[in-house]
Specification:
single chain, alpha+beta, two-stranded antiparallel sheet, 3 helices
Length: about 110
Amino acid sequence: MYCERVCRIPIQATQGKLHAYADDHQLYCSGVDPVALERCICHEVRVANEWYRSNGMIVNDTKYQAMVLGKTDHSFSFPLKDSLDIFGINIDNRLHFDNYISTSVSKR
């Protein structure tokens, strides 16, 4: 996969936002209704996967990760994580950076 091609992905995120950097892509949806959020992210993932496949790329959905910011009792159809590492920074679902700071300090 070439950065030039990936950075020019013509995927139109119709309900959410797409951020791409090299071979890392993030899809974001926001709102207060967890059912609508799930529907949004599932739709955008389907659109992205269709584009990848139609352009000869291999989709590795075992690398997909999801996190919900805030509290919800909704049971999503995909696994959620409490924190994610994005560009070397650990972000948790409460937007605290405790893990990132602890890791950074212990490396000194």
